[in-house]
Task: inverse folding
């Protein structure tokens, strides 16, 4: 009979992993209980930050402590522990996954041993339903790859897909077995892990929904319950689309006229600071865009707005700009050190020549060179985080291929980064310029109702970016959670297949931002 161990990774789990909201137990507790049912011995890989907490509740498991865990270090430790225990394979998972399923795990172990696989995983389930399995010898090979040919990946901090990411560099050398889910849940983008507030609340709400039948619940039943539950698929916003100024340098054909102009013509910095504090408290981690219905670089204090967001560890910035005003005067005040890896720039180009650009953007042809030159200017200051964008329309469809071929080259200013964006008619407000229908065959509940909050510069929160005429509340006068809940009914209607006229006319429901 084959021997195995279970290895749980807790080297960078967050405080949410230890919240005892699952009938008096935490995600870490439930992960440990699952581990005890599937291995001869359980090991927990932990770091400095949570060591005391893990020590107090890690009964029955042996702790392995390192100050820093990389993908290479994890693979090396799995290999060493297999050798220490003369184990044939290790079952591996992160230690903040409360819904690891016994039946799926058993099926995965059976297939791994039956077909003498080197590495096995489940596909089609949400993350956190199934572990990974890696054979003892394979763990050693992965560790060697992570140190040598895949050292760029191996040297990175341990990630949830770290082992497989290393293996992908030489994927044909491994015997891999995949347990395929009978139903494909990947489009739900559910992640049953407790590293962030958004996922923690989803897990907590799902547990409350099935708590009376949780132990022994079928994985498919659990996922089906999650799929149709508003409190699970809509927790807190992950993306805030904020208008800080209603002004544009020029009126691009795919931007509707700005829906609001405050008395000052732009959002006040002191009000914005209070808003960002609210966002941090409510969502904990989020992306904040400063580009809703306006050119953000036209704001008189743009850099201060960016720096305010960057002062929060779990908040990051998105700037969509025409690039015309990208210069030291407008962005020179941004704290470059704090901005490292926390701000992304999207440059609205949409064309490969000045004539077409001028037509689409209603501007002088000379602005095209300013827009293009903003890419290397920003890339020099924010390397790897600048994205030339092409909004695909009937008017510019013939230029799509040349745009893609040019900007995808590593030698060009964006070093191969680019975005091809679909056209949005704002539920019929703008002419239909869509050059291709990308909608899925089966309609899904709107991602934007589930994950986004749009905020205009006077504090107004519309239902969504495409329905800015219908108001949910005002962030300067009310709490965010009160406003956020007011959209629950709209999402409930989507789950039931009931759509308002505006929603019926909108095809942004399947687009996913952050």
Result:
């Amino acid at each position: 009979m084959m021997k195995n161990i279970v290895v749980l990774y807790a080297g960078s789990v967050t405080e949410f992993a230890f919240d005892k909201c699952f009938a008096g137990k935490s995600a870490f507790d439930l992960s440990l209980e699952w581990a005890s049912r599937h291995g001869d011995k359980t090991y927990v890989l932990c770091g400095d930050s949570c060591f005391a907490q893990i020590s107090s509740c890690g009964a029955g498991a042996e702790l392995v402590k390192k100050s820093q865990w990389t993908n290479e270090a994890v693979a090396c430790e799995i290999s060493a522990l297999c050798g220490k225990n003369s184990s044939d394979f290790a079952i591996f998972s992160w230690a903040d996954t409360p819904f690891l399923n016994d039946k799926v795990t058993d099926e995965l172990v059976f297939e791994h041993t039956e077909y003498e696989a080197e590495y096995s995983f489940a596909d089609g389930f949400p993350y956190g339903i199934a572990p990974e399995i890696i054979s003892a010898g394979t763990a050693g090979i992965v560790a060697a790859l992570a140190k040598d040919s895949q050292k760029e990946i191996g040297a990175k901090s341990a990630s949830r897909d770290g082992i497989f990411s290393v293996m992908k560099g030489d994927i044909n050398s491994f015997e891999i077995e995949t347990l395929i889910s009978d139903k494909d849940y990947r489009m739900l983008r559910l992640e049953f892990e407790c590293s962030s507030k958004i996922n923690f609340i989803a897990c907590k709400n799902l547990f409350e929904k099935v708590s009376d039948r949780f132990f022994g619940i079928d994985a498919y039943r659990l996922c089906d319950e999650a799929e149709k539950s508003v409190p699970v698929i809509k927790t807190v916003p992950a993306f805030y689309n904020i208008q800080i100024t209603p002004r544009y340098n020029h009126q691009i054909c795919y931007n509707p006229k700005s829906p609001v102009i405050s008395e000052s013509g732009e959002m006040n910095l002191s009000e914005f600071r209070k808003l960002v504090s609210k966002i941090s408290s409510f969502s904990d981690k989020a992306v904040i865009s400063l580009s809703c219905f306006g050119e953000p670089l036209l704001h008189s204090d743009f850099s201060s707005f960016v720096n305010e967001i960057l002062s929060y560890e779990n908040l990051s910035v998105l700037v969509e700009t025409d690039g015309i005003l990208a210069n030291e005067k407008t962005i020179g005040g941004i704290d470059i050190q704090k901005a490292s890896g926390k701000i992304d720039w999207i440059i609205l180009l949409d064309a490969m020549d000045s004539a077409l650009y001028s037509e689409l953007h209603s501007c002088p042809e000379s602005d095209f060179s300013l827009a293009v030159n903003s890419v290397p200017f920003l890339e020099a200051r924010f390397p790897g985080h600048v994205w030339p964008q092409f909004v695909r329309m009937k008017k510019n469809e013939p230029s799509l291929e040349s745009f893609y071929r040019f900007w995808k080259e590593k030698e060009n200013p964006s070093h191969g980064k680019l975005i091809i964006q679909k056209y949005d008619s704002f539920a019929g407000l703008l002419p239909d310029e869509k050059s291709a229908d990308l909608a899925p065959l089966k309609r899904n509940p709107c991602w934007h109702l589930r994950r986004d909050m749009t905020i205009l510069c006077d504090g107004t929160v519309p239902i969504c970016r495409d329905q800015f005429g219908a108001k949910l509340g005002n962030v300067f006068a009310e709490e965010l959670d009160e406003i956020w809940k007011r959209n629950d009914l709209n999402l409930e209607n989507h789950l039931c297949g009931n759509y308002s006229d505006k929603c019926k006319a909108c095809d942004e429901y399947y687009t996913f931002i952050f």
